[in-house]
């Protein structure tokens, strides 16, 4: 236990889930999560491979913030750790964030960590100031974009789906393919991992195991197999993917998962056809908008989103600091 003038830092426990989920929602109202999701992510975390620890800040016995430190298993570097510090808006500028940050840094140093990473939305000026003041440097930016689907003009893309169909490529859901092909899930896993290797990243992406894919993309509370779209050619080869996840906290929007096409199949219009299917899905389900993120240098994907009418939000900035 570590104590500042007014902050007590302790390890988080399962009993803290309700208050921490509510605190997170108060801090990030557009990105609410649920207790079910937090429990799933914590209970399925492989502690034998990757480190993860959460701490809580209390003031006068009241929870006012929390901190999380973990390996970034999507781009694993053994000596690099991601840290997140969240303080309730009503309790900021009182030293609680600093106390949490110091506690997380202590855990990294105990493990002989060499680098810490963090991220903040550029419009969250307090968070930007917090990190830059402590010597963090910017290493990456990702545009957040949102597409409000009501009134989407499919006529502007009238030839997109016919273009891929003429090439013998069909767009289907993973849910349907799993009913007719016992190897569909394995094929979807291999496709997703191949595409994920080409997503811009500060460090090289780490290939996941099939079990990790299942836990993250198939069995997760927000997974939607009927919104997991894949492009398959006439020989049965999986060429492209675009999947959505539901927000358990706010059914008005869907999270965009990965959109990707295998290198040898690019330039055929597959990504656009896949993305159009996600929009149709959102409209059919009465969803208001789709949220997505793309590296600011990923021009091919940004061009598709811009053509479809995704509106850019303030960017999320990734930071790092060497210890």
Key features of this structure:
2 domains; Aminopeptidase; 323 residues
Write structural notes for this entry.
There is one protein chain. The protein is α+β, with helices and mostly antiparallel strands and 323 residues long. It folds into two domains: 112 residues, Aminopeptidase, CATH 3.40.630; 170 residues, Aminopeptidase, CATH 3.40.630. Helices cover 33% and strands 30% of the residues. The protein contains ten helices and 14 strands. Strands 1, 2, 3, 4, 5, 6, 7, 8, 9, 10, 11, 12, 13 and 14 form a 14-stranded mixed β-sheet that branches. Strand 5, helix 3 and strand 6 form a beta-alpha-beta unit. It is globular and about 65 Å long. The model has no long low-confidence stretch (mean pLDDT 96).
What fold name stands as the CATH topology of the largest domain? Aminopeptidase
| Class of secondary structure makeup | alpha+beta
CATH architecture of the largest domain: 3-Layer(aba) Sandwich
Q: What is the CATH superfamily of the largest domain?
A: Gcn5-related N-acetyltransferase (GNAT)
> What's the Cα radius of gyration?
21 Å
Task: Report low-confidence residues grouped into runs of 5 or more.
Answer: none
Number of strand segments: 14
How many structural domains can be distinguished in the coordinates?
2
Proportion of strand residues = 25-35%
Report the order of strands and helices: EEHHEEEHEHEHEHHHEEEHEHEE
The residue fraction in helices comes out at 25-40%
């Amino acid at each position: 236990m570590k104590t500042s003038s007014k902050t007590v830092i302790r390890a988080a426990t399962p009993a803290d889930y309700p208050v921490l989920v509510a605190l997170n929602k108060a801090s990030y109202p557009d990105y609410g999560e649920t207790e079910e999701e937090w429990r799933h992510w914590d209970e399925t975390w492989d502690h034998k491979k990757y480190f993860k620890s959460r701490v809580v800040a209390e003031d006068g016995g009241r929870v006012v913030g929390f901190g999380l430190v973990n390996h970034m298993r999507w781009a694993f570097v053994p000596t690099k750790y991601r840290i997140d510090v969240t303080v309730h808006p009503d309790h900021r500028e009182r030293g609680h964030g600093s106390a949490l940050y110091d506690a997380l840094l202590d855990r990294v140093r105990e493990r002989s960590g060499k680098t810490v990473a963090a991220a903040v939305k550029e419009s969250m000026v307090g968070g930007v100031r917090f990190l830059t003041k402590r010597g963090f440097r910017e290493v990456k930016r990702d545009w957040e974009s949102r597409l409000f689907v009501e009134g989407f003009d499919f006529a502007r893309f009238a030839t997109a789906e016919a273009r891929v169909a003429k090439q013998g490529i069909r767009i289907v859901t993973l849910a349907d393919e799993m009913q007719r092909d016992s190897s569909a899930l394995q094929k979807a896993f291999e496709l997703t991992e191949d595409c994920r290797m080409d997503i811009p990243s500060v460090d090289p992406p780490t290939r996941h195991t099939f079990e990790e894919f299942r836990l993250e993309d198939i069995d997760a509370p927000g997974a939607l197999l009927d919104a997991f779209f894949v492009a398959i050619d006439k020989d049965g080869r999986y060429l492209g993917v675009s999947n959505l996840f539901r927000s358990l906290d706010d059914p008005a929007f869907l999270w965009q998962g990965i959109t990707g096409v295998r290198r040898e199949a690019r330039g055929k219009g597959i990504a656009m056809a896949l993305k159009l299917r996600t929009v149709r899905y959102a409209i059919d389900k009465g969803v208001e908008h789709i949220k997505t993120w793309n590296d600011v240098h990923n021009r091919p994907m940004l061009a598709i989103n811009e053509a479809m009418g995704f509106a850019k939000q303030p960017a999320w900035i990734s930071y790092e600091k060497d210890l």
